[in-house]
Amino acid sequence: MATRRKTSIWSIRQPVPRGTALALAFVMPIIVIGAWSIVSYGHLAPPDFVPSPTEVVRGTLQLFLKYDLGQAIVTSTQRIVLAFLLAAAVALPLA
């Protein structure tokens, strides 16, 4: 009868326990945004190297509202889908 050993989270090539994966999925983005905020708002890096989260949100909204980024994304997606469909239409009969 085989005994089951408890594996460490640091074991190589072992699946991460579900609870640990779930905790990391929630905690890591908070840690990253927190570190980013500390570095940018604390002036630990120049603003042109690490912009603040506020500037990133402001810039993103400006791209969508002023420069119509949403329409550019829709147009690019349509072109990609059309190119894929044309390639599939040519490749499937040849296969």
Short description:
This protein has 95 residues and is mainly α. The protein is 66% helix and 0% strand.
Descriptive notes:
- By secondary structure, the chain is an all-alpha fold.
- The protein has three helices and no strands.
- The chain has helices at residues 18-41, 53-65, 69-94.
- The radius of gyration is 23 Å and the shape is flat.
- The mean pLDDT is 91.
SSE topology sketch:
Elements: H1 18-41, H2 53-65, H3 69-94
State the order of secondary-structure elements, H for helix, E for strand: HHH
User: How many helices does DSSP assign?
Assistant: 3
Q: By helix and strand content, what is the structural category?
A: mainly alpha
Provide the β-strand percentage band: under 5%
What does the main sheet amount to? none
Helical amount: 55-70%
Oligomer: single chain
Mean pLDDT: 91
Instruction: Tell me the span between the first and last alpha carbons.
Output: 52 Å
Radius of gyration: 23 Å
**Spatial shape:** flat
Number of strands: 0
Low-confidence residue ranges: none
Search tags:
95 residues, 3 helices, 0% strand, mainly alpha, 66% helix
